[in-house]
Amino acid sequence: MPLTSPHRPAHAHRPPATGPARARRRRTASALLASAVGVCLVAASAPAEPLGIGDPLFPHLGNPGYDVQAYDIALTYPGANDRPLDAVTTIDARITADLDRINLDFAHGTVRSVEVDGEPAAFTGAGEDLVITPDDDLDRGESVRVTVRHTSDPRPGNREGGWVRTADGLAMANQADAAHLVFPGNDHPSDKAMFTFRITVPDGYTAVANGLPAAVDRTRATTTWTYRTRNPMATELAQVSIGRSTVLHRTGPHDLPLRDVVPTEQRTALEPWLAKTPAQIAWMEERVGRYPFATYGLLLAEASTGFALETQTLSLFERDLFTDPALPAWYVESIMVHELAHQWFGDSVTPRTWSDLWLNEGHATWYEALYAEERGGRSLEARMRAAYESSDGWRAAGGPPAAPEPPDPGRKISIFRPGVYGGAALVLYALRQEIGQAAFDRLEREWVSRHRDGNASTADFVKLASEVAGRDLSGFLHPWLYAAETPPMPGHPDWRSADRSADTPPGPDTRELRHGHLPGPHGHRPDPGGE
């Protein structure tokens, strides 16, 4: 990443900080007496290197030694989406291990300066990390504030994700590991935090972000929009919309404030679709309990992405999804429900590692399929049988649902394979067959209640399922989640995988496509024809 100040500032010392958390140890006496140049040489003796928390799929993603409590991200949009935004990212974190450096994930912008607790700090780049060396070491248990002044570049780089350039501005798509292409942070879903966004735009533009509006400050030529989350959020779920947009307001169940962001000229045509959201929320609440956040809405972007994305409280969709006459209403609504279901499964209850992705996509696909059956007459059993026929092929190509293969080189979003969509929904169907409808429904409600606003793993799910069922289900679920071949389906002994029932190699099953969206990055479109 471009760096404009690779050296330690000349003032190598600072007065001791005050407050109960400021019990820092100093560096050695020799370092304290050294000149600024000498300190630079000491720092240089241990080269900066990228770190990570050892995620099975993204080992260099995230950083050890601290827990982010809050982000404050200020962005200034220049009025064109092919120019970098000026930005200031402030991170409040709790130190969890003694540190002499802080690594942040950041890979697509120019860092202009860094401060640690208000004092300038040295910084350099290492891989996709910004490595910061404060004057004083950081002790476990203390709090720290890191302020990074940088640019945020919406121009395409050599990586997928980050900013999405729309017809009139910008939006974000940060899965799977692309938030650090937009702002520095601890870019792993296991480190959720509160967010504040302050977005300054020229007159004529509207800015919307995750959470609830907190302030609107206008000057002669610009407006600054401030939004704050009321619940912690993973970095990959951050969303900022900048464009010549209209924000439409309505209320959902129990007076939930809803807001949709749409191209101004399309607001009338899109309104019938947006008006369906309150009933869809009520439908989900009947099955899994109260909506977990303080607001919800749809961001309909004038962009060609090939996917929809469950950014927290403000799901991203292509506008064309709602205006394409070839797509039947049941299909469009089921995709709306897919992203809505993610607000419970993935956003409120967030995976502990990226290998737990099936917990997100499997559940979203499950409720999408249930909705398509109830509202569109699309048989759930037929869809599951088609998925079963393809399941062995999916496992061979991308791994079993809870142990997906690493992403293809240069394509981080390739972890979004069919096995974590249709294959994972098949696991839930098998579980319901095994423990019965009533126990399965209790499990779903208890899962989102017990782990609300937190992180959970596959092991947590197996443990809770066993608790709800009143018996150990690990022997049943382990092959469904981890085996190379799909186990027999309870209640359907006649079901066969195409891999085992024919000599021809498995391939895409057209019946699966007709019964729902094609599993792929964040949800691809199907062939909506057929049955």
TrEMBL record:
Name the UniProt record assigns to this protein: Aminopeptidase N
The species this protein was found in: Streptomyces tendae
Top-level taxon of the source organism: Bacteria
Presence of the UniProt keyword Ribonucleoprotein in the record: no
Ranges of compositional bias, category Basic and acidic residues: 493-502
CDD domains from the UniProt entry: M1_APN_like
Domain Aminopeptidase N-like N-terminal: start-end pairs: 174-235
Region ranges (Disordered): 1-26, 489-531
